[in-house]
């Protein structure tokens, strides 16, 4: 086993423990960015001047009326920017735009002595606009040919030959919605200027280094004059990876121009209407199977709704394509991607970063095709798993390591969940209940861990040991409630061989660890854990030399366990505090900078080939639902999950991540329905679901009545920090099982073997229309009911799904 993966005697990693800030969270004493305002003197408040039009050119901007409002100190406009007037890394996001690109776009910011003064000042700013044509929906953009960014194509094998060899060929299309992050803490920043004119920004950001970079280029100063700190976030989920930068720049610009601290915080409605979401997608596809139901070829085009600017749409699209295979071997594939430009908020990173969208496409295809092939959906999925010993690679050319774990977690779910017995019980229940139906579906996950851009796969840390033996660690990762800091403290304590109470963790800031990557891609523990381990190993090696001289032995024979240094085969020992004090008086350096880079990665974005991922996280979930045939309402009766986190760094944290990720995924797929005004009226482009009253989030009522989560045992990951695997994003995709169970339950209202299409999100309304279709025995593959009458065309929520064509239609060119 590698040095990175091997665990020492009595490690602190692997011990179940609560989140390091759990007590502060539940008592309300944990500080977030906006809490710091009360501790800061003479703070000004920033408020946006939003234009409520989907698109238009600003022809006049009059700030005089705002300055007449009592308490207004200044109005920030593009003329005030000393550096680059742009908030993005692609230079397509003007911080102060001349052209409004979405409903609610901010064109100026008002600074006031109070938030109310700033609000009234913003309302007084006069904006004249020349309205321009707008594209609101993904369909609008596709029809208009409105695209931006890269258009990658992933090819593997020979798709034409694959289709020629297929016994069954189906085609279809599928459109599904995005998702609002709805973190508890909205975007916030607090900027201050010191006596030397240097900028200190407290920001709720997943990427402090990039926030620093954007602030510095807006202000026209070098990065060493800007320090960004993130105490913690009240949730991020990817929504604070790219989007906080411009907001922090507004606060920093205001502070630079006024010399006073500037506080920025969006209220909930502003956050919902100004910040990006998970990308919705449209997919067209063609798939071929052999006579046994094994995939022979796939040809698909996936179109992302990018919104008005690129943001992270290109890397999201890349990950979509890299995950369309999920757990399935596709020998011949051609998958094209493109990004639609619409006049809505700029869509961005969201937990899974495109992986969920790619996997949803293949899972939807298999769920729709299984009845056409005369196969149980579970059997169809099993037949197409990656298999050990076959030398199979993903469509982008990466060998699939540990394919045996795909079958292992699947079988463990079947066994521990008693699936076979329950399926018989469900069949009996459905036969006896004409107005309610139950169904159980099982789906798997194979999610690649690492950033697709190889350069991002590096991490840094700074570890300090003080004379009294206490330890302070700094690393580049940010804490958004996911438990990263807890794991990092466990890694440090384990590597140094000391109790956890000896270790404290400092807030993440750019003047301690520079040039960090975002806390994203589920790589936070891998990258920062590797860096902390490296720093602590440097310190431990120095201290072992000191201990050896005191104990009269060789350093290679000394072990530090639970805060005591001992020589192998001897009873003589040296306490940690005394060891540190001795090292200080011997002038041994007690600080170390650690570094880690993920090895073995390579990626060619142009050819779309390579091995971009360190390893794959594997999981499987079985979900049982009960559906009401009159309303489409449903309840989640039971969920069984087995998930592979390697050798867990912190089991309690990991189980919480699996549970939370699953519920968030179920929200995306079944509840959360983003809607914009698509009329030609005055509110065109307005987000209609701009509050919790109109945007339904999963809550306790949506939790499964029985929820069983098991971490795969004996699953050490070679080459990862202490044998662990990432856990942040992969569990979200376990929620596909809920959607597939709803599909099967709806189909149970119809004749045996009928297939149904199901909109996403599968709201009760969408489920109702699927039930209606099934009841009539409608064949969605040719748009005709089995009796020859016209089938109902409802797909639910206005998302029109295309049908799956029959073999005869495809062969005839229909």
Automatic annotation (TrEMBL):
Residue ranges of region Disordered? 777-814
The record's section on InterPro entries has: Ald_Oxase/Xan_DH_a/b (IPR000674), Ald_Oxase/Xan_DH_a/b_sf (IPR036856), Ald_Oxase/xanthine_DH-like (IPR016208), AldOxase/xan_DH_MoCoBD1 (IPR008274), AldOxase/xan_DH_MoCoBD2 (IPR046867), AldOxase/xan_DH_Mopterin-bd_sf (IPR037165), Xanthine_DH_Mopterin-bd_su (IPR014309)
* Basic and acidic residues: compositionally biased ranges: 777-789
Cite the Aldehyde oxidase/xanthine dehydrogenase a/b hammerhead domain residue spans from the record. Answer: 27-133
Write out the transmembrane intervals.
Answer: none
Q: Identify the Pfam families for this entry.
A: Ald_Xan_dh_C (PF01315), MoCoBD_1 (PF02738), MoCoBD_2 (PF20256)
Q: Which domain of life does the UniProt lineage start with?
A: Bacteria
Species name: Streptomyces thinghirensis
**SMART domains, per the entry:** Ald_Xan_dh_C
Instruction: Supply the name of the protein.
Output: Xanthine dehydrogenase molybdopterin binding subunit
């Amino acid at each position: 086993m590698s040095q990175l993966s091997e665990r020492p005697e009595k490690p602190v990693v692997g011990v179940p423990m609560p989140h390091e800030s759990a007590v502060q969270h539940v008592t309300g004493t944990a500080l977030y960015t906006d809490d710091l305002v009360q501790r800061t003197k003479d703070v000004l408040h920033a408020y946006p001047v939003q234009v409520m039009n989907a698109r238009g050119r600003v022809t006049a901007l009059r700030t005089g009326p705002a300055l007449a409002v009592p308490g207004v100190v200044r109005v920030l406009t593009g003329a005030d920017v000393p550096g680059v007037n742009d908030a993005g890394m692609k230079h397509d996001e003007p911080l102060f735009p001349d052209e409004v690109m979405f409903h609610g776009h901010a064109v100026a910011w008002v600074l006031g002595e109070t938030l109310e003064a700033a609000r009234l000042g913003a309302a007084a700013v006069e904006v004249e606009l020349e309205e321009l044509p707008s594209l609101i929906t993904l369909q609008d953009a596709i029809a208009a040919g409105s695209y931006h960014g890269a258009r990658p194509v992933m090819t593997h094998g020979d798709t034409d030959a694959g289709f020629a060899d297929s016994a069954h060929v189906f085609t279809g299309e599928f459109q599904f919605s995005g998702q609002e992050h709805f973190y508890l803490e909205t975007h916030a920043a607090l900027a201050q200027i010191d006596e030397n004119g240097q900028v200190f920004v407290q920001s709720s950001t997943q990427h402090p280094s990039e926030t620093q970079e954007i602030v510095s280029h807006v202000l026209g100063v070098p990065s060493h004059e800007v320090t960004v700190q993130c105490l913690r976030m009240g949730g991020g989920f990817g929504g604070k990876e790219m989007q906080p930068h411009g907001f922090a720049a507004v606060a920093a610009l205001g502070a630079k121009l006024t010399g006073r601290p500037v506080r920025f915080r969006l209220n909930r409605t502003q956050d919902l209407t100004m910040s990006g979401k998970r990308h919705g997608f449209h997919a067209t596809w063609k798939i071929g199977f052999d006579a046994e139901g094994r995939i022979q070829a796939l040809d698909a085009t996936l179109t992302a709704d990018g919104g008005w600017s690129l943001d992270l749409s290109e890397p999201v699209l890349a990950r979509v394509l890299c995950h369309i295979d999920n757990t399935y071997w596709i020998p011949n594939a051609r998958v094209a991607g493109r990004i639609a430009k619409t006049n809505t908020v700029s869509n961005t990173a969201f937990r899974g970063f495109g992986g969920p969208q790619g996997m949803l496409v293949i899972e939807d295809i298999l769920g729709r095709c299984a009845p056409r092939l005369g196969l149980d959906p579970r059997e169809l999925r099993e037949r197409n798993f990656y298999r050990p010993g076959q030398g199979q690679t993903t469509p982008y050319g990466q060998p699939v390591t540990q394919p045996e774990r795909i079958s292992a977690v699947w079988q463990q779910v079947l066994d521990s969940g008693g699936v076979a017995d329950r399926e018989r019980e469900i069949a009996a229940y459905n036969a006896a209940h004409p107005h309610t139906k139950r169904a159980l579906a099982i789906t798997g996950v194979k999610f690649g861990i690492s950033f697709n851009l190889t350069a991002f796969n590096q991490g840094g840390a700074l570890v300090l040991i003080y004379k009294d033996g206490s330890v302070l660690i700094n690393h580049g990762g940010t804490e958004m409630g996911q438990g990263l800091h807890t794991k990092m403290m466990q890694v440090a304590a384990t590597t140094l061989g000391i109790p956890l109470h000896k270790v404290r963790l400092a807030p993440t800031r750019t003047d301690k660890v520079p040039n960090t990557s975002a806390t994203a891609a589920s790589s936070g523990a891998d990258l920062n854990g590797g860096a902390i381990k490296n720093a602590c190993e440097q310190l431990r090696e120095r201290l072992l030399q000191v201990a050896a001289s005191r104990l009269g032995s060789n350093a290679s024979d000394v072990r530090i366990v639970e805060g005591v240094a001992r020589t192998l085969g001897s009873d003589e020992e040296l306490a940690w505090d005394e060891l540190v004090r001795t090292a200080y008086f011997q002038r041994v350096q007690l600080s170390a900078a650690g570094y880690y880079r993920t090895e073995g990665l390579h990626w060619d974005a142009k050819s779309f080939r390579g091995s971009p991922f360190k390893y794959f996280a594997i999981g499987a979930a079985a979900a049982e639902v009960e559906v009401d045939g009159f309303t489409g309402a449903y309840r989640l009766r039971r969920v069984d999950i087995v998930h592979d986190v390697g050798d867990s760094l912190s089991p309690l944290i990991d189980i919480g991540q699996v549970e939370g990720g699953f519920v968030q995924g179920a929200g995306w797929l079944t509840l959360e329905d983003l809607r914009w005004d698509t009329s030609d009226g005055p509110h065109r482009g307005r987000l209609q679901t701009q509050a919790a009253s109109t945007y339904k989030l999963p809550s306790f009522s949506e939790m499964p009545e029985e929820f069983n989560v098991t971490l795969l045992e004996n699953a050490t990951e070679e080459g990862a920090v202490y044998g662990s695997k990432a856990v942040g994003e992969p569990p979200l995709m376990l929620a596909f099982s809920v959607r597939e169970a709803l599909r099967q339950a709806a189909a149970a209202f119809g004749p045996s073997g009928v297939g149904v299409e199901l909109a996403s999100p599968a709201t009760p309304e969408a489920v109702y229309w699927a039930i209606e279709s099934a009841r009539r025995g409608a064949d969605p593959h040719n748009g005709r009911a089995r009796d020859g009458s016209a089938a109902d065309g409802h797909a639910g929520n206005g998302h029109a799904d295309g049908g799956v064509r029959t073999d005869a239609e495809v062969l005839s060119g229909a």
